């Protein structure tokens, strides 16, 4: 699977991507706002799961590499998974290597995958969650056309304390990109 944008392309991971995937997941900034960072075994298992899910039919989860369109340089990962089939809700998430922040790559990746969800996955609603302290993700969700649904209070422990999460969404009839 490939989705091509102006500056980036999204594609399935291959075995050759493990080095970058591992580097991204090992970076403390990647999981700064999460409950915990994955250990080596979890990273390996998550990567193998991403490789195997390519063959699922129907496919209910897409874990994709974000690469620069021109030279194929890996810059991050993005995923979308079916949360609730009855209401056709899909959840999107992403991580971009800090060396590539502030270039519009994450926003373009999110917009491309949301568009794919509505055009090819029959999504009615795409949601994203972010720690309320993660202002960069909140701004990205807004730039990508998502709207704040609300705040989930104290839904996980982050860095030893309870934290809140934003939930953002976009509905199929709102999507015009």
From TrEMBL:
GO molecular function, one term: acyltransferase activity, transferring groups other than amino-acyl groups
Highest taxon of the lineage: Bacteria
Positions of the N-acetyltransferase domain: 8-164
Coiled-coil portions: none
Protein name: Acetyltransferase
Record organism: Paenibacillus radicis
């Amino acid at each position: 699977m490939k989705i091509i944008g102006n500056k980036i392309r999204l594609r399935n991971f291959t075995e050759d991507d493990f080095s970058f995937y591992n580097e991204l997941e090992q970076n403390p900034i990647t999981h700064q706002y999460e409950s915990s960072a994955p250990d080596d075994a979890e990273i390996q298992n998550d990567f193998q799961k991403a490789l195997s899910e390519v063959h699922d039919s129907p496919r209910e989860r897409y874990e994709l590499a974000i690469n620069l369109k021109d030279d194929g340089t890996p810059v991050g990962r993005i995923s979308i998974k079916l949360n609730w089939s009855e209401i056709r809700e899909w959840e999107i998430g992403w991580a971009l290597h800090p060396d590539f922040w502030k270039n519009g790559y994450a926003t373009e990746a999110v917009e491309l995958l949301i568009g794919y969800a509505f055009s090819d996955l029959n999504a009615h609603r795409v949601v994203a969650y972010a720690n309320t302290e993660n202002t960069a993700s909140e701004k990205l969700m807004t730039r990508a056309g998502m709207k704040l649904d609300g705040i989930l209070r104290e839904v996980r422990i982050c860095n030893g304390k309870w934290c809140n999460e934003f939930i953002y969404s976009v509905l199929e009839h709102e999507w015009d990109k």
